[in-house]
Specification:
With 168 residues, this protein is mostly helical. 79% of the residues lie in helices and 0% in strands.
Amino acid sequence: MGHTRQMVSVTVDREWSAAPSAGPGTRLVAWLRPAPSFLAVGAASSALYGGLYLVLREVATSQWANGVALVLSTLVSTAGNRRLTFHSTAASTVVPHHALGLGLVVAGFGLTSGGLGLLAALDPSATRTAELVVLAVANALVGVLRFTSFSLVMRRDVESGVPAPSLS
């Protein structure tokens, strides 16, 4: 059983890495290989975020709704990316990975709240649709930062020998 786990870990490592002598194009392809899974998790988490925002916006200000929706959707997104995108399942990395995800909420909240503030200053009667467009653009920018950060940290953890999920 432990041997199978090691073989799966090696397979995951090879998926992500290119030989040091590989050209920049090959290394870029290897770096971006988990992107489709990351985008799928991100799309689901963005839908959750948007839904939470709209529900919370009925009872709270845009900033409060934004903050609560960001934190809750980030917890779900981080868990999904740990498991599905980066194959990180070790209990020892749960807290550091979620701390990173929640740390990125600060950047996300800065961009999203700044965007909402700018929208409110430019159009005090902006619609919920306009708010969601501003939030989508800001969250897309944060998504690039999240992918880069998670790639650096979670890949390192998996490649350093933290067991990958068993296929049995």
